TrEMBL record:
InterPro entries (UniProt xref): PDZ, PDZ_6, PDZ_sf, Pept_M50_Zn, Peptidase_M50
Location within or outside the cell: Membrane
Keyword Protease set for record: yes
Topology of this chain in the membrane: Multi-pass membrane protein
Organism: Kosmotoga arenicorallina S304
Cellular compartments per GO CC: membrane
Top-level taxon: Bacteria
Lineage of source species: Bacteria, Thermotogati, Thermotogota, Thermotogae, Kosmotogales
Keyword set includes Nucleus: no
Protein name in UniProt: Peptidase M50
Length: 505
């Protein structure tokens, strides 16, 4: 069933993208020889007046084959197709638009999907899970459970919008909904120092609240400076103000530059079961796993992060010299305390069994609901805004790939998408539709990248021709795209390898 969902969804996404290329090629009177869905051996085809529709074995993508586009078949195309209907004889601005139309149609389709989804189901609430003590939000009066309705007078439909405004550091006017009442608050983000997350192995000792030194280097020097003194795999020692020490092997280190923050955490999932799973019942609330207390959704997220680690693994979260959180891994046998209908019950379960429960889609309740605006027209309009904000977020994530702030290991390939589709299908049609919208938008953004073999690469070459006012040698262009194609295949294989690792756990 998951495979069928995947094929139907991916086929729809590919058709939307390739339809853009097809329609613009027809608009400029380029002869389209084939409209293919998938790659590899042909399963069946339908021959039209000019174009053959082909369905192929491997449902990962598709293409529109235009006369005069492929250098390998150029001579054959010239013999069969009038010169004025060949792709490579068209002006550079027309070839630019033909290349651009695919990503354009993907993005427009994504906008339509989110507009329709907004009109049907509404929009996810932005709910405050926890407020950091002594933070700007704390002093402004923001409380756990508040729903943020608007920011600077504009309806908030995506938490990333608020995050971007916070990063700008300017004072904000936020309207919150609390117990059915609207409250307007003014709050100015605070600039926080460098933060760091250390993942340690074979850790011994206990941390304190305030860090003084790492291997005798003062934390006041900054984590970026100190990090140059040691490497992953080395033994390092943390010294705290109260005399506590932690000695361990450095497994990983993540450093964030100084940034503005309000001191709020958004609600995601709550530690409350959404359905009966094993000995757990719908409505059961996890309150403790071994000696780790779970008070809210934020604690639950920390639990999910650290549950698979072994007991000698330690996670240390710092903002400046202040320890925000210290986590340790868990042994194979767990004691899980739950609250069921007002009574506390303790259960014993293996770690592997508990992890398999945590990984089940829709196993736990969301920490927010969906809200609906005044009418369907407003919902449709806000759905377009929702898609725009997600599009901006995607562009930012991909931009971070080129600046080194994110890596390819954070991206998902075909195998990962199959799993996402399966999880979304179990969570309901709403999640399936939203996932389709996300993938469609992502396809449009990725294809706009100025890389050979992608639509963005073809657009760049067409722009170069418009600037230099002469045609680039088709052979050189073909070599550029061929090299780009093999690089993309290599990237796809790498991401697929990462996906398989995730899939196998």
């Amino acid at each position: 069933m998951v495979a069928l969902y995947f094929i139907v969804i991916f086929t729809g996404i590919v058709v939307a993208h390739e339809l853009g290329h097809y329609l613009f090629a027809k608009l400029f009177r380029v002869k389209v020889l084939e409209f293919a869905i998938g790659f590899g051996p042909k399963l069946f085809s339908i021959k039209g007046k000019e174009t053959t529709l082909s369905i192929k074995l491997i449902p990962f993508g598709g293409y529109v084959r235009m006369a005069g586009e492929d250098l390998g078949t150029l001579e054959e195309d010239i013999k069969k197709v009038p010169k004025e209907r060949l792709f490579n004889t068209k002006p550079s601005w027309q070839r630019f638009l033909i290349a651009f139309s695919g990503p354009l149609f993907s993005i427009l389709t994504g906008f339509i999907i989110f507009a329709i989804a907004g009109a049907i189901w509404g929009f996810p609430e932005v709910v405050v899970e926890r407020v950091q003590p002594d933070s700007p939000a704390y002093y402004a009066g923001v409380q756990s459970g508040d729903r943020i309705v608007s920011v600077n007078g504009k309806v908030l439909i995506e938490s990333s919008v608020l995050s971007r405004k916070i990063k700008a550091g300017e004072e904000l006017t936020i309207t919150i909904s609390r117990n059915g009442n609207l409250v307007e608050l003014n709050v100015k983000p605070q600039l926080l120092p460098e933060s760091a997350v250390f993942v340690l192995e074979d850790a011994s000792g206990n941390p304190g609240n305030r860090l003084l030194n790492i291997d005798r280097a003062p934390v006041s020097n900054g984590y970026s400076t100190i990090a140059q003194m040691f490497q992953v795999g080395e033994i390092i020692e943390f010294s705290f103000e109260n005399g506590n020490k932690v000695r361990a092997v450095l497994k990983n280190l993540s450093i964030s530059k100084p940034y503005f923050a309000l001191g709020i955490y958004y609600a995601a999932f709550e530690p409350v079961f959404n359905s009966d799973i094993g000995d757990f019942r719908a409505g059961d609330r996890i309150v403790r796993v071994n000696d780790f207390s779970v008070e809210d959704g934020l604690d639950f997220s920390y639990l999910v992060q650290s549950i698979s680690a072994n007991p000698s693994t330690m996670y240390l979260y710092f903002t400046g010299d202040t320890l925000d959180k210290a986590l340790k891994g868990f042994p194979e046998n767990l004691e899980v305390e739950i609250q069921r209908k007002g009574n506390n019950i303790t259960m014993n379960i293996t770690k592997s069994e508990f992890i398999s429960i945590l990984e089940k889609p829709n196993a736990f309740k969301q920490g927010f609901d969906f809200w609906y605006p005044g009418n369907v027209f407003e919902a449709f309009s806000l759905g377009v805004r929702w898609a725009m904000e997600l599009l901006r977020t995607m562009v930012g994530i991909i931009s971070n790939l080129f600046t080194g702030q994110s890596s390819l290991s954070e991206f998902t390939g075909p195998i990962g998408i199959v799993k996402l589709v399966g999880d979304a299908a179990k969570a309901g049609m709403k999640m399936v539709i939203l996932l389709v919208g996300l993938i469609t938008l992502n396809l449009g953004v990725v294809n706009l990248l100025p890389l050979p073999a992608l639509d963005g690469g073809r657009m760049v070459l067409a722009l170069v021709e418009m600037i230099i006012r002469r045609r680039i040698d088709p052979k050189i262009e073909a070599y550029i795209h061929a090299i780009g194609f093999f690089i993309l295949i290599g990237v796809l294989l790498y991401i697929t390898f990462i996906d398989v690792g995730r899939f196998l756990g």
